[in-house]
């Protein structure tokens, strides 16, 4: 496996009823945060969905820049009155959110399916 394939970020999205699911796979860090932001900005450029699920189950790394991107998504979702759910956040990311005092600001679900059922 090449170094690029282990340190890149792939972001994709799809509709599930009235929800949009954005899947992030790889590293959400300083180098790849612009990829994440561009995908989300494009989504908000169209009409925002009532529910946005960010699937983080494929995330392998998240630094403070990645955390800042999640805060940006939270702010944008609040402005758009869109329900935001972080699905599949690993233990490290949950700990990072807890330590920074941000855990209570995010709705978390164990999986995308759980997030979609909770609508």
Automatic annotation (TrEMBL):
Species in which this protein is naturally found: Streptosporangium jomthongense
> SUPFAM superfamilies annotated for this entry?
SpoIIaa-like
Q: Which NCBIfam families does this one have?
A: ant_ant_sig
- Output the InterPro entries linked to this UniProt entry: Anti-sigma_ant, STAS_dom, STAS_dom_sf
Domain (STAS) ranges:
9-119
UniProt family annotation:
Belongs to the anti-sigma-factor antagonist family.
Superkingdom, according to UniProt? Bacteria
Transmembrane segment boundaries:
none
CDD domains from the UniProt entry: STAS_anti-anti-sigma_factors
Q: What is this protein called?
A: Anti-sigma factor antagonist
Secretion signal span: none
